[in-house]
Design a protein that fits this description.
Blueprint (H helix, E strand, L loop, with lengths): L3 H11 L3 H16 L5 H15 L9 H9 L6 H12 L8 H10 L3 H9 L4 H16 L9 H15 L6 H16 L49 H19 L33 E2 L10 E5 L11 E5 L5 E2 L22 H8 L9 H19 L7 H24 L3 H16 L6 H18 L4 H15 L3 H13 L1 H7 L2 H4 L1 H10 L1 H15 L5 H9 L1 H16 L11 H7 L4 H7 L13 H7 L7 H24 L2 H14 L9 H19 L2 H5 L1 H8 L3 H5 L1 H14 L10 H18 L13 H17 L4 H15 L10 H18 L2 H8 L3 H4 L11 H14 L1
Antiparallel strand pairs: 1-4, 2-3
Helix pairs in contact: 1-3, 2-3, 2-4, 3-5, 4-5, 5-7, 6-8, 7-9, 8-9, 8-10, 9-11, 10-11, 10-13, 11-14, 12-13, 13-14, 14-15, 14-16, 15-16, 16-17, 16-18, 17-21, 18-22, 21-22, 21-24, 22-28, 23-28, 23-29, 24-25, 24-28, 28-30, 30-34, 32-34, 32-35, 34-36, 35-36, 36-38, 36-39, 37-38
Length: 876
Amino acid sequence: MYSHGSESLIKQAREIQEPELQKFHSRLGKLLQGKELGHETVDSLQRLHLILSATKYTRALPPELQKRVQSLLSSPAEQFQVLSSAVLRETLPLSDQKENYIQENTSQLNSHVAALLLSQAGSRADVTSLCAQLLRSLESRQSEGPANSLTHTLPILNTILTHSPECLTEDHVTLLSKKLVDWLRYASITQGGSTSSGGFFTGPRSRQPVPTAELDGTVSGDFFTVLCVGQGFTEDQWMNVYSFSMLRHWLLTYHFVSNGNSTADTGMTSPPIKTTTFCLPVPERLIASCHSCKEHQPQRVHFEGCNSFTSQMTCSVFSSSPAHRLQLSLSFSLSHSFSNDDRSEVDGSVVSMVSATSSSSRLLPPKERVREKAFQYCQRLIEQSDRKAHKRTDTDLQKACLVEAVCILDCVCEEDASLVYRTFPCIKALFGRLSSDLSFARVLLPIAQFYLNHGEMAAVDCESVWKLVFDRFPAELFNDHFLAHELLRFLRLNLESLQLRVPQYTRSFPNLLKFLAWDSPAVVDDFVDLLPSLVTAGTAVELLHTLLDLPCLSATLVLQVRSTSLPISEPGGRGLLSLDAFRSPSFRGLFLFLLRGEAGAGDTIDRLSTLHELLAETANWPRVVQCAQTVPMLLHIFFNTVITVADEKLLAHLVLVMLERSSLLLNIPKYNKEIHRVFSSHLLRLCKLHPSLVVDQSHELLEFAGATANVYNKEEIYTHAVWVLGEYLSVSCDSRCSVSLITSCFEALEAVLFEITSSAPPPGADCPAPRVVTTLMSALAKLASRSHDLIPRVSLFLSKLRTVTRGGPVAWCSDEEDLVAIVMRGEELWSLLKAPGVAQSVLTPPPHVTTPQWHRDTNVAMPLRLRALTNLTHSH
């Protein structure tokens, strides 16, 4: 895993002796006392980190050295912040100084200190103490603390909420809710610095406050949001951005305050909403730089969203590039509670309505007030998203904010049902505006979640939403990896609701499976969870055909993409035959069936063999091979599910499909054998659960078992088909089983056995497997034991078999040991058939004999006696 040089350094670090380590500590302490910290200090800190991390045991630093390393956390050079944080994470603060340690570090909070404090919280008490310190820092005024401490407080608080929400008390919830309301709704609306470029003519007039602007360049007409831009930003505007990033997580988490200190909130009775992570790029130009104000010098801000589950919640401020730009990178963790989108019919109406409700909300309790402000904030974001941004990166920011806004609206509506009626007009209009543009697909998914959660309550028609989600998204965006992940996760998280409320879901499997056909390794886990919900009595047969045709669908999707990007080959030119066939009108119907969007057009197509010939050259394409590798596992899931929902008639149809499709598969190496193995195991299982299936499908089974060619190219399923005929074609399993049926089955199997044991295999084929031969012999013996008129025919064949093999090697069996085993099995059956009554009892024992299986029960003496008798007989 490591190079030789790396292993050598790690070994040296582990084996360092205490005297040498003390000298190193002393030398590093002297270096840290100097005014200038140069490359030697950096190298020494890196070596110290290696020494501390190379062993699983926690080393303690000398107190003086630890204090000096801790002081580097507030160094103006980020390199020393990173190194000191890494070193201190490998140690623990002195127990008698832990409280002071937390206080000192929270007073100089930055992203690296935040990671350190979280990593060294060794108990819940430590986390509670840290949480209390952070909340106290929020109560202090901005002038009382460092300029950037607040911007690092919210991310670390959010991480604490993620891992230990019980550390919060009701007082903490009230305090943080009030602060979030202030930051979200009452941030200043002027830019955070002078817009003057400086110079000789600078005067008081140029230093007047300048209002923030919208993304389209107009002056902001309402309160500040994350979609407002300016040349500089004030502290409370930064906190507005940070508050919005953690708002949804806060609304989902403050239910779990400490039980001993909490009081029930009337609006908090609904269960938490499912969430997932969804990141969208955010433009470089959320804010422009300020050129003249010293307090707002150009900076590059990297903000890792508050919804991250990592221990290091960073909001680090780095020095800027010469371009004097601020880059805000917001990573939004979005829930699967998605919703619709809307815009105000009259420009500015949303702004005025939002502002008008602010005064009445002041009378609400803190939790209800933060919900109300979240509602207003999201309404304003939706209004701002309708503005034409000047840059593409700003358009990406609008999309990201739309997704988060819709998710927050969904969240507050889950908590307060009265908001549903206020929200739905906005959501409905937003959906109408965006539904025709698939570039907004990742915004439309949250809208679909909103419709799913609240559409029934609002009594709205959701048909157009589900048509978009289950029809256009998979059909046109199957190669969008991000959308595939989010859509499938949406389906998994809402599986029960979709099955109950959305009938389009189960009929959409031909479309949904396009995600699997295009990128099987990435989404196969999702379909392991989804596939059982798609199996119903009405879809089972078509779904089985579709699963078997998944490699064909994969190849067709590749051809569809290539047909739009590659030119049509010229006459005489060299091109893909399959691509030419895809473009040919005569074969268009075959490919259109594979690309259908909804079930119900038919179970399969008549010209499958033609389709497989056209796609023969695609059998070794990596995407097709990967898709084929997932099919056997999905078939197991399908059959395990279908036996719980299907009646006997449907199961009989599935048996027929298995027999037919065993010879109609795309010729991919190993694929056919794997499918035959799956078919054979589940054919056996179905017939064991419902023995009457053998009589129901006796004609098809006999036709399959009577084809000698199946012995050579379908060994696995052929063997099991013969076995179920011999085992379950009996009056004891089905009263409809007649003597004539037994006789016709016997004659078909006898003809096959005689043919394969009297001639060499066809050219290019291997000798029949010994298991096939012995299974045929056993099936004939079983059938003869039920119709004694057939016993002489079986006995004659078995006696001839013994005579033939005495003459030496035979053409139909190349291995001598296999031949001996076959002959031995024939002699056993021949001996049994001499006593017909005994033969039937042994070959087809009644259920009350086979069910206990005393000879296998280790709790009784029967196995021991059988082993003893076996040893005695073998010893002589």
